[in-house]
Recover the amino acids of this structure.
């Protein structure tokens, strides 16, 4: 997922920030740096899959969870 996907879903930076308990300036930074990996996973869970984390991120974290289990 990218920043524009979040804006399409939530409409404003403030709504994005509120959804996961951040302040708006943190979300603003994602316009240039991209949505952090762990945040993508949070949004995927939070939206019930309406927003999807990048497949490589899902694969990466599934591997870590499998190794820890």
């Amino acid at each position: 997922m990218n920043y524009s996907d979040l804006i399409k879903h939530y409409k404003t930076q403030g709504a994005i920030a509120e959804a996961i308990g951040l302040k708006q300036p943190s979300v603003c930074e994602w316009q240039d740096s991209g949505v952090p990996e762990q945040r993508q996973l949070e949004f995927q869970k939070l939206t019930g899959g309406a927003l999807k984390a990048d497949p490589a991120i899902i694969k990466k974290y599934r591997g870590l969870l499998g190794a820890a289990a």
